[in-house]
Amino acid sequence: MRGLINYFSGMFNGIISLLKGMGVTGKYFFTSPVTIVTQQYPENRKTLEMFDAFKGEVTMPHDENNEHKCTACSICQINCPNGSIEIVSRDVVNDEGKKRKELDKHLYNIGMCSFCGLCIKTCPSNALAWGQEFEHSMFTRDKFVKTLNNEGSKLMQKKGVE
Amino acid sequence: MAEIIQDIQEQEYIINMGPQHPSTHGVLRLVLSLRGETVLSVQPHCGYIHRGIEKMCERLTYQQIIHLTDRLDYLSAHINNHAVCMAVETALGIEIPERVKYIRTIMDELARIASHQLWWCSFGMDLGALTAFFYGLRDREPILDIFEESTGGRLIQSYYTPGGLMKDIHPDFQKRVKDYIIYFRKKIGEYDQLLSGNVIMNQRTQGIGKLTKEEAISFGVTGPSGRGSGFECDVRKHRPYGMYGKVEFKEILRSEGDAFARYMVRMDEMRESLNIIEQLIDNIPAGDFTVKMKPVIKLPEGEYYQRVEAARGEFGVFISSKGEKYPYRIKLRSPNFSNLSALHTMANGQKIADLVAIGASLDYVIPDIDR
Amino acid sequence: MEFNIYDFTSFTKWIDESLNAAMSPFWVMITEMAIIGVAILAFYALVGLFLVYAERKVCAFMQNRVGPNRVGPFGIFQTIADLLKLLMKELVYIKNADKLLFNIAPFIVITASFLAIAAIPFARGLHAIDFNIGIFYVVAVSSLGVIGILLAGWSSNSKYSLIGAMRSGAQIVSYELSVGLSLITMVVLAGSMQLSTIVEAQANGWFIFTGHVPAVIAFVIFLIASTAETNRGPFDLAEAESELTAGFHTEYSGIRFAFFFLAEYMNMFIVASIAATVFWGGWMPFHVPGWEGFNTVMDYIPPFIWYIGKTAVIIFILMLFKWTFPRLRIDQLLTLEWKYLLPINLFNVVLMAFIVLMGWHW
Ligand code: SF4
Ligand code: SF4
Fold first, then answer.
1. Alpha-helical segments (H) within C202-302
2. What is the pTM of this model?
3. Is C81 among the domain residues?
4. N or C: which end of chain B has fewer CB within 10 A?
5. Separation of CA A106 and ligand 2 centre (Å)
6. Domain A57-155 belongs in CATH node 3.30.70.890
7. What is the pLDDT of residues C158-200, one digit of tens each?
8. How many interface pairs between A and B have CB atoms less than 8 angstroms apart?
């Protein structure tokens, strides 16, 4: 007798648990257009905004005079765990005849970057920043190597310090 | 004839499950020998995604190691980093600010919830309930958004650094987390309705993949999997770090030791994590988000070990230093590797479908196994 | 002839007569077979494509997603695009596979589902063959599919396929019983195996209402057992994705895979049609005895719409099953059949016979 009761109670509890589960999926089905959470990606490209902190790529902000802050000190290059940064510098002679290093090219290989943020954090002159771009796919690998400084850009002169 | 039949009955049917298989969650290869549907033995073959992280760490500074430990158990990236950072900090004898401890603890718990949610998704999927997969991912999304807003990363954050954090939390962080607690408390009831109480799911997990407490201890099965067998192994409770010593939470323990117990431990842990976050989120003290560190960290000569409770079990970092800026040797004790070693004991004599359920209840992350 | 949307009898008769006027009886038979064949083929393809689309949309909505939405408005051409893709894919031959069996297995599966459609009454008079043993025929024919599945699993020479096929064999052989018995319960009630008679008998109330508790039990059992018979979740052990990758059709590619895929959906459609016909009155409108006005309003809805509507509801229920429940294990599957469904079913038949004997059923 006990067995029979267990048999039926087990069956009914089982059915009730199944119905509960169907209730959840059914609820979402019938409220579906409201409860949809997915985003329509290529369509919402215009309105899609990433968070400010989003690590899309390493960039070097330039001001309106096409000047950046990088002093070509190579600290970012040393700190990068993956060797994705290469600083190409040139020697320039300034008015007083002193030799000084100047940034020629800040080469950044996004294909090797692991977005650890050490280059940005350790840069002494705050020359680097995160960019929010996230569509990085390219057809060939060499396109991953980007030159971060603009063509013909110069070092930003610090105000008051000469 | 009788001989032939006996011959056939004694033969084993060898199947390679993986390295590409939907339920091995990555590139794990299980060599099964079957008799009919019954599993006679399981031999895990790992190494398909071995990247030599421990070796790579020997040529990296302590700050740089962080971005590799992220990539072990990518679902508890924060927690792994916490271990490395604490190992370095204790070695240097640095006292880190309270604010950092609070934020780290909250982030760890958020990572734990997100990780358990993903486990729930894949658990449902392995058992064949595909809808569960999407519900779990849906609820995980806000956590990833919270991470992204403050840390810049969704899966891999590289947010902790020896001495503190990479950057301060976003001003909206507290509000978002509090909203999320309210949101998820509601949704977790749905999880129970859909899966935890489901008679099919109960049948498929109860009494399956038994692991006794003794076996759990001898295999070193930790985390929710160990606690499902009654092994009190919560590092947060027994060796408190971060803010865990100051908050109230239960160590979830179950004695059954079957797949269902492991399931329930994780479900309850999600709730418990919400409680922990709730206790901390309003009291984050003001202050610095990092202490001033020297650009080149050199650990004094010696050996250091730090353990934390990652989402899947005890994660340990052993650093042997010769006083240089690189570690001399690093050993990572990854929870999944030990948990996997118990797979054979659990799955022996069960059905193939049970093996899948057991694997799902162990919740392995292959990059953590292979390192 | 007049084309009547409520009654196709005159229409089909007109076709028959005009053909008879033009040809000898033998050629009439051939032409009629051809017409029916083409009609069913077209219907089959249409329903198959639509069901695949519907399933994707339904499961997407349950999972808070949008589902296919790229090809055409709301993605309605998605399945056509998929079909084209499958048609163009390479047919991979397995080196040590049994070529002949490997090739004919998909056709057996699809033929089985094809045959079953012939007996289904879509509307009054729209009926390929009205057997006097219609239900028996459908049950017999729809279980032929398992042969195809077994052959597919065996001939692929793949371990996963073999396990899947064996599971499927065990599963379908046992669940046949429940499908058959639950239909027999209704045959007892209807007093006939002819599908058209069964539908006509439900003019004053569908069997699910007039058959008291046994009819409801039989309906539930039929739904469960037929889900199992069509290899759909939660009983999709034969293809159990997370265990056997794709089960018996692991090694199939291109259009052969599409055949299995289509057959699964068609089986679902057939099962839903049978359920709608036997339990919910098929194309018979919803009538409440005594409510004359209501009944006439219901009669205005064409029978075909009634039939499609009922089938769609049952298909939706089957989809809800699939997308909610975890998969069973093979021994639990058999336990469910032999320990629960079969005894209940047997008891149910007796109960139904008792009710019919006492004349309580109208
Ligand atoms: S970006 Fe910063 S760290 Fe790198 S070279 Fe320029 S100034 Fe130095
Ligand atoms: S983010 Fe890290 S990996 Fe990427 S360039 Fe900077 S230091 Fe290198």
1. 207-210, 212-229, 241-244, 254-279, 292-300
2. 0.86
3. no
4. N
5. 13
6. no
7. 888 888 888 888 888 888 888 888 888 888 888 788 877 777 7
8. 74
